[in-house]
Amino acid sequence: MRIKKAAAFLAFFLAIVGLAFLVSGLTTESVARFEVDVVGSSQETIGLDVPDYIYFGNVSDRETIRTMMGDLKLNNTGNVPINVSVELLPGNDEVFNYLYLSTYAERNYTHYSNFQVSIPVSGKKNIYAMINLTDYGGNIPFGVTRMHADVKFIATS
User: Fold this and answer.
1) What is the separation of C-alpha 136 from the centre of its chain, rounded to a whole number of angstroms?
2) Is residue 87 situated within a structural domain?
3) Are β-strands 64-66 and 124-132 bridged in parallel, bridged antiparallel, or unpaired?
4) For the whole prediction, is pTM greater than 0.70?
5) In sequence order, what E strands does the chain have?
6) What would the pLDDT profile of 80-123 be if each residue is shown by its tens digit?
7) Do the domain assignments include residue 17?
8) What range defines the domain where residue 103 resides?
9) Which of 14, 20, 115, 135 lies 20 to 30 Å from 28, alpha-carbon distance?
10) What pLDDT does 110 receive?
């Protein structure tokens, strides 16, 4: 019986020593999630403010009429420089095919389809418009006829 007690004691002793080794060699791991919202210095924004309505007044057959100085102010409301071009939307009266634009009041008028102007960040540009009917070959009705065009200003960076 003494041997059984000694064997039991030895087994108990080895279990304690093994447990001590096991406890001293234990490791644990934990995971932490790190998050950050990365915000760029700025997001490119294109913005353009144009007048809602321009009235040329009366224009006679085969005549040229210009807007008054500063009638058309284009404002860059974005945060990048822009280039602005112009197009006529469908369904306009044909006299507006003779629309010319310039950044100078009295010179360098360009047909609307070829017009382009650059505007810096937070910049403004005055543009001037005229309808030149000197080469217009269509019929202009007798009396006063209100004609219109919808003009789209396109800003790109």
Assistant:
1) 38
2) yes
3) antiparallel
4) no
5) 48-49, 64-66, 72-76, 82-88, 99-102, 110-111, 116-119, 124-132, 151-156
6) 999 999 988 898 888 888 888 998 877 788 999 999 999 999 89
7) no
8) 48-156
9) 14
10) 92
Predicted pLDDT of residue 30? 66
- The residues that bridge with 127 in the sheet, in sequence order, are 72
Q: Are strands 82-88 and 116-119 parallel, antiparallel or unpaired?
A: antiparallel
Low pLDDT (below 70) residues in the chain: 1-42, 60-71, 141-142, 144
Rounded Cα distance, 60 and 11, in Å = 119
Q: Return mean pLDDT, the chain.
A: 77
Distance CA 118, CA 157 (A): 9
**How many distinct structural domains can be found in the chain?**
1
Judge whether 97 and 88 are in contact, CB under 8 Å. Answer: yes
Phi/psi of residue 80, nearest 5 degrees: -135, 155
Q: How far apart are CA 45 and CA 91, in angstroms?
A: 31
Cβ atoms 44, 95 nearer than 8 A: no
Give the full edge-to-edge strand order of the sheet including 151-156: 116-119, 82-88, 151-156
pLDDT of 27: 63
Supply the CATH number for residue 91's domain: 2.60.40
Note the pLDDT of residue 146: 83
